[in-house]
């Protein structure tokens, strides 16, 4: 494809929302039909999100014609949430048809009781029930049969028409009613699972008050541009992502991050669409268009995750592709072979029809996607983005979790707790000025702590640094007043000195390390000048989270840190970590993950999504503590925590494990139910309507089982 063609395709990309998309096979068929339209280059239908992306040009009427086989309705993306409000039960055409069909079936049963099954009136009532309730089913089933596309509607159509052909009118009408109920329940269950997406989309207001050219106007969020000044009063939701330019307030970020405690925001702080301004009046400069906001990105990620097939779902889909034709072939053999030897054509045809009905793979096909959509949607509502069914399943099988220390188990904002002069060669103020000059441009948390402390405690002299060099994971060096200074870990300083660290200095280092503090030494080319002891405060819930993880079945927790062994041991013991790896460079963390995997462990890595990217990618599962709006976290990890809250990790593991159990339960139940029903058909114990009821019950049970995932909450 040429560059021009690629640009044109991108420009012609349109997103639509779909109503009445009830099954995965329907979605695949609809996608195929849309791709065959003359001006469409490509199409992707997302069944879980009820969403379609079309590359090319097509009218709504053309798209709906492509989905006419299942009465699929197509809406523009921006109209979806506004136009899909709850429709009263009596106004839904399929429900009216179902009720009318049920009334005719009851009248037919009454006529059968009073006048007999063979009376014209009785048969007419049953035929009316079959036609009214099954008209759409027959149209789809017959079209698919002609095209040799063997789906569940083909099976049901043959079974119902076959029942009518052998005079089993009441059975045929009952099958129609029960199948319609099954379809209705399937629609309800998928709609319930999709609510998580729609609720996310409706979090942010659709309009905002903007000040332009000194005038306050109310605009649709689609019309707002980057740089516009947005006015938000106390109690209002923030419509767009932006940066506060006037005012301060507490912002409730629960809709985005899941954290319950409001966050203090001041001038210069970022705020996100869908969060709630609780107290002060704010003026906010818009930094992102509506389609690029953090909320929009979350919705997109959740929808893409729900579209991605998990291994279990992929297996079921492949199985169903061969299973349905096999059931049809087996039914044909049962209808034809036994009567040739023992007679009784009507009886064996009836059993074959029962096999077609009970062989319908409804419960099996829906067993996995409804669980995945429900679990991923529930996680998103709690501020956890699981980026696909495959990652959901992986999280359910994790037995080892490795944590980066700084910013993950700790708050990531270390402070200097102890300063000690080790030489009289310089004054305290001069040493602090040198330390500030060396560390002021570094982004490392420990460097920031030292420069902040030096600025607060030292003199006011701004010293210039030349020949500056940063040694990753060790420290920094540079010339101040033509003298070379180094500031870094004791091991790095010992390497740079002609002789090893003096005994007195080594003891001073060990005293601070024994308290769980990280030690940094300042030296010139000849001697150690000063000692900085830095401590990063442990998050208040870190120890509780580690205990919870062990309780939910995580076999080992591992802490990976660049800190010295003594500091790492103190913190690790306080938290109850089962394995502690210290003095690691970034590449060493990756190597440790590989070692754990080589030992047979299923490893999840928890980090901040930036400097831990290699380890996150190497682990079986990468979990990023990114915080709201951190693009790196959203892009790097398999799971992103929208709030820097470790409490969400045990919740995610519990949800994933329950989802895995539910998927296995559903598949096992669906298979077992089919096998039992098939065994009962051979001796003739299973009637046609009982076969449908079995299929309906199976669909209902696996759906209800999957919806239990909505009840998983944070503890």
TrEMBL record:
Enzyme Commission number, as recorded: 7.2.2.21
Residues that span the membrane, as ranges: 95-114, 120-138, 322-342, 348-377, 667-686
Gene3D superfamilies membership: 3.30.70.100, Calcium-transporting ATPase, cytoplasmic domain N, Calcium-transporting ATPase, cytoplasmic transduction domain A, HAD superfamily/HAD-like
A GO MF label: ATP binding
HMA domain residues: 12-75
Localization in the cell: Cell membrane
Statement: the UniProt record of this protein carries the keyword ATP-binding: yes
Classification via InterPro entries: ATPase_P-typ_cyto_dom_N, ATPase_P-typ_P_site, ATPase_P-typ_TM_dom_sf, ATPase_P-typ_transduc_dom_A_sf, ATPase_P-type_domA, Cation_Transport_ATPase_IB, HAD-like_sf, HAD_sf
Family membership noted in the UniProt record: Belongs to the cation transport ATPase (P-type) (TC 3.A.3) family. Type IB subfamily.
SUPFAM superfamilies, alphabetized: Calcium ATPase, transduction domain A, Calcium ATPase, transmembrane domain M, HAD-like, HMA, heavy metal-associated domain
Reaction catalysis annotation: Cd(2+)(in) + ATP + H2O = Cd(2+)(out) + ADP + phosphate + H(+)
Keyword terms of this UniProt record: ATP-binding, Cadmium, Cell membrane, Ion transport, Membrane, Metal-binding, Nucleotide-binding, Phosphoprotein, Translocase, Transmembrane, Transmembrane helix, Transport
Origin superkingdom: Bacteria
Membrane topology qualifier: Multi-pass membrane protein
Name of the molecule in the record: Cd(2+)-exporting ATPase
Record-level GO cellular component terms: plasma membrane
